[in-house]
Amino acid sequence: MNVTTSTAEGRLQALSSTMLRRLTMDRDITFIIGPEVKPADAMARATAFARRTLPMLLEGRPGAEAAASDAIKVLAELVDITARDRRSTDMLGRVAFDGVHLTVSVGEMHSPLPAPNDEPGLYLVRSLADDIGQYDGDEGGRITWASIPPRPGTF
Has this prediction a pTM greater than 0.85? Predict the structure, then answer.
């Protein structure tokens, strides 16, 4: 059996695995957690996924381990608070990297962010992020995002 590939497919097959990973991974990772998942399980799933994928997203960057650790902590808190106040059926999460900052976003929540001293608070998010906020999502809820700067001396 002969298989004919297009010129573009042939070029993709000739790329090294590292180059192909950079082309296909882009600059973000996205996950979806269904409605049947409890908040603690949602945190576990999201952080496990981030632990597996962040090293590829940050590959070759100085301070990648520290950045991934901070992003996972922020992600866990955002998933926890969103899962407990979920507006939409599925919870969508995203970690994006712009070359310096990591931005973690999770949605959608019914309500605005809690005040800094409210429980459950966003203690790690507020201590690790240089900016946080919310915007209106497609399902009528609010998507929460946090921008995580590099640790001093790492980028």
Answer: no
